[in-house]
Amino acid sequence: MRGRNWNGTWYWIHPFNLEGANCWASEIVFEERVDLSQVPVVTIPLPHTTFAGPPGNVRAVREGDRVTVTWDDVPLSEDKRRGYLIEAMICQNGSVIPFIVHTDTASYTFKDETGCGEKSGGLLYTAEKHGYSDPVTIPWP
């Protein structure tokens, strides 16, 4: 095991059958429990593509504890389209936590409470079969 995500639900491993490569595996496929304090949190860069550009006209509106992010659809053929990825930091129960989501539509609504010491925010990517576009910073309200 080479690392883990922030809350230990996914492990960055080196499988025996993948020479020189690592991959993510869900904690639920492991029979043994792992001492998470002994496994470093890792951030692995997303595979990048230039076949799809980032979404345009990105905007966000807050209504109470709901933040709706919308953008213009990126036209891609069905065989290349993989939707969109949002990497967000949102306020939940007084703490800012990472929240990563995939959507096939050009909008997403988050529950983002007020009262955290840090500001919420996020990045939006177009997902394409070869990888992810450059990110767009979401103008978080």
Main sheet properties: 5 strands, antiparallel
Number of helices: 0
Question: What is the chain-wise order of helices and strands?
Answer: EEEEEEEEEEE
The CATH topology of the largest domain, please? Immunoglobulin-like
Number of domains as seen in the coordinates? 2
Just give the CATH class of the largest domain. Answer: Mainly Beta
- Number of E strands: 11
Poorly predicted parts: none
Class by alpha and beta content? mainly beta
Shape: flat
If you average the pLDDT, what whole number results? 93
Give the proportion of residues in helices: under 10%
Strand content: 35-45%
User: What separation lies between the terminal Cα atoms?
Assistant: 39 Å
CATH level 4 superfamily of the largest domain: Immunoglobulins
Radius of gyration: 17 Å
Question: From the 3D coordinates, which CATH architecture of the largest domain would you assign?
Answer: Sandwich
InterPro entries: FN3_sf
How would you explain this protein's 3D organization?
- The protein is mostly beta strands.
- The strands form three sheets. Strands 6, 7, 9, 10 and 11 form a five-stranded antiparallel sheet that branches.
- It contains no helices and eleven strands.
- InterPro entries: FN3_sf.
Q: Which descriptors would you attach to this protein?
A:
141 residues; mainly beta; Immunoglobulin-like; 2 domains; five-stranded antiparallel β-sheet; 11 strands; flat
Structure, briefly:
InterPro entries: FN3_sf. This protein has 141 residues and is an all-beta fold.
Write the layout of secondary structure elements.
Blueprint: E1 3-4, E2 10-13, E3 23-26, E4 59-63, E5 66-70, E6 81-92, E7 95-103, E8 107-111, E9 121-128, E10 131-132, E11 136-137
Antiparallel strand pairs: 1-2, 2-3, 4-5, 5-8, 6-7, 6-9, 9-10, 9-11
